Amino acid sequence: MESDLQDSVASILRRDLQNGGVAMASDTETARFSLLVTQEKFSSRVLSVDANGKALDNEIRLVVSFRLIPAELDETAAEQQLELVRQLSFSGSDELGQRNEAALMKNDMRNDMASQIIRRLEVQLR
């Protein structure tokens, strides 16, 4: 598994797969499959504002692209993409609280995304 991000979907996948009993190969030559996370991208947009123009509701979107590459496959495996969308509502003027809440939601989304990828892999590898 490869990725440049810390606390990323890739690192959560590694942890969850190991906790689930999946043996991780020490290098790509001995691996039966390689799981490559090629993109992890958050975006957001404002859904509603108050009378002063302050955002009340935001939509947070997480898009992750990945490839599961069997060891015996010489060509590039097809890239797969999953997307999660959550709505985050704010009230009041607590900027620090809003940032903390957004960070917690992003962390939850990464965990949810890792779970969805694992479920997809389970189906594909049956």
Number of domains: 1
CATH fold label: Double Stranded RNA Binding Domain
Report the strand count: 3
Query: Any idea what the CATH architecture is?
Result: 2-Layer Sandwich
Can you write the helix and strand succession as a string? HEEEH
Mean pLDDT: 87
Strand content: 25-35%
The description of the largest β-sheet is:
3 strands, antiparallel
Order of neighbouring strands in the sheet with most strands: 1-2-3
Q: Tell me the name of the CATH class.
A: Alpha Beta
- What is the assigned CATH homologous superfamily? Lipoprotein like domain
Q: Taking Cα atoms only, what radius of gyration do you get, to the nearest Å?
A: 18 Å
Helix content: 25-40%
Give the termini distance in whole angstroms.
20 Å
Task: Provide structural commentary.
The chain has 126 residues and is an alpha+beta fold. It has one domain: 2-Layer Sandwich (Double Stranded RNA Binding Domain), CATH 3.30.160. It contains two helices and three strands; from the N terminus they run αβββα. The chain has helices at residues 9-19, 95-124; strands at residues 33-49, 55-70, 80-89. Strands 1-2-3 form a three-stranded antiparallel beta sheet, covered by helices on one side. α1 (9-19) packs across α2. The protein is elongated and about 60 Å long. The two termini are 20 Å apart. Mean pLDDT is 87; it is low at 1-5.
Topology of helices and strands:
Layout: H1 9-19, E1 33-49, E2 55-70, E3 80-89, H2 95-124
Antiparallel strand pairs: 1-2, 2-3
Helix pairs in contact: 1-2
